[in-house]
Amino acid sequence: MRRDVFQAIADPTRREILNMLASQAMTPNGLAENFHTTRQAISKHVKILSECQLVKQEYSGREIYYHFNSKKLKEVDKWLQPFRTMWDSRFDQLDNVLKNLKNKRS
Amino acid sequence: MRRDVFQAIADPTRREILNMLASQAMTPNGLAENFHTTRQAISKHVKILSECQLVKQEYSGREIYYHFNSKKLKEVDKWLQPFRTMWDSRFDQLDNVLKNLKNKRS
DNA sequence: TATATTTGCAACCGAAGGGTTGCTTAAACC
DNA sequence: GGTTTAAGCAACCCTTCGGTTGCAAATATA
After folding, report:
1. Global pTM value
2. Rounded CA gap, A49 and A43, in Å?
């Protein structure tokens, strides 16, 4: 089952899980207490996050603490990079096209 | 039908479409030529991108030129912001936890 | 040892996703 | 005016997704 970081962060619940784990490692039960769903539903989300390495496991007896692996989000940041210069430049793509049309006319 | 930027960029084809439109506005037919799918499939993707305003339309006769709206990607960048400091700090979350445990012990 | 707790796994369900084919509309072209 | 051509819309199909319930395995606790 191929998992993709972009697909992993597409779900709002999974983004929220990442936010929680960013401040503190947590168990599935601990996470589930903060949502209005079952533990199994949360475990499924965590499994998806785990499969694309956004989360790492630490075993402690019968409990499993999930840790956030921020490095994996670099992939998203990397994809975003070329676009970042665009919105910084105060001109979006449509503005540029209109500007070019005006130049051709004059 | 609620559309979300995160969900929109989850699909690799849609990310590729955005990459193309970033350099040049294109029509559905023009886009479809670069993929091994039908025009209708691409149109569906473009519609999704349009619904969350990642793309804007410019009508020219019977053709429709789709323009990339980079500003909308700021939402992703904004969500990424707090995590960016984490991977910059050379310590990921797991490292910090282990470090804390070590401090408590000593 | 018996019981309670934490967790993962499997089966199932309804909704949404990505794709295709067929059709209609409207502009361009002969 | 008749015919291409560009595009959207609708129906359908199969797969994936998010969620649930039920159950088994393993650790903690009495």
Report:
1. 0.85
2. 10
Is residue B3 helix, strand or coil? coil
B74-88 vs A12-23: helix crossing angle, rounded to 10:
30
Q: CA A22 – C1' D30 distance (Å)?
A: 37
Answer yes or no: are the C-beta atoms of A55 and A69 closer than 8 Å: yes
Q: A26: which strand partners?
A: A66
Please enumerate in sequence order all residues whose Cβ is within 8 A of that of B9, keeping only pairs 6 or more positions apart, or say none.
A6, A10, B15, B18, B54, B73, B76
Query: What per-residue confidence (pLDDT) applies to A1?
Result: 56
How does pLDDT run across A61-101, given as a tens digit for each residue?
A: 999 999 999 999 999 999 999 999 888 775 555 555 555 54
Burial B13-24 (b: 16+ CB within 10 A, else e): ebeebbebbbee
Nucleic strand D within 7 A of Cβ A10: yes
Report the distance separating Cα B45 and Cα B47, nearest Å: 5
A90 φψ region: left (φ > 0), alpha (ψ -120 to 50), beta (else): left
Q: What is the Cα Rg of chain B in Å?
A: 20
Shortest distance between the Cα of B22 and any Cα of chain A, in A, equals 7
Verify whether the Cβ–Cβ distance B10 to A4 is below 8 Å: yes
Rg of chain A in Å (alpha carbons): 20
Give the pLDDT score at B80. Answer: 96
Nearest nucleotide by C1' position to the A10 CA atom: D17
Q: Contact, B69 vs A93, CB < 8 A?
A: yes
